[in-house]
Amino acid sequence: QLQLVESGGGLVQPGGSLRLSCAASGFTLDYYAIGWFRQAPGKEREGVSCISRSGGITNYAASVKGRFTISRDNAKNTVYLQMNSLKPEETAIYYCAAAALTTVQAMCVQVRGDYWGQGTQVTVSS
């Protein structure tokens, strides 16, 4: 069974940090671009950051540049999203997705994914 599982979400104060993980089972992430997306209540899902198969190309939403870092460890079949200086408006469910045959820019901008995880809640609040 092909599955993506997110972890690492939780409650954090404004200005705090979290590291999200996206682990794959049943398939190898090596062949896929991976993206992190988020969806806040009443809003559409948006791309946060995406990374190419090799990890050599990354894409970030303008709102998170300089604060978030995406990385991948293909040996562990896992992708990470380090989030620093979090803001209350970034409270959302964060999802990871895997997509083949796409650029990282297209994946993030068009919210593309062949496989999706169930999401992990991130709440930024004092």
How would you characterize the overall build of this protein?
This protein has 126 residues and is mainly beta. 6% of the residues lie in helices and 47% in strands. Strands 2, 4, 5, 6, 9, 10 and 11 form a seven-stranded mixed sheet that branches. Strands 1-3-8-7 form a four-stranded antiparallel sheet, with no helix packed on it. A hairpin with a 4-residue loop joins β7 and β8 (78-83). The longest helix has 7 residues, at 104-110.
Oligomer: single chain
Instruction: Give the mean pLDDT.
Output: 96
Number of strands: 11
Ends distance? 39 Å
What is the number of helices?
Answer: 1
Rg, Cα atoms, Å:
13 Å
Residue share in helix: under 10%
Strand proportion: over 45%
The biggest beta sheet reads:
7 strands, mixed
User: What's the order of the H and E elements?
Assistant: EEEEEEEEEHEE
Principal-axes shape call: globular
Structural class: mainly beta
Uncertain runs with pLDDT below 50, 5 residues or more?
none
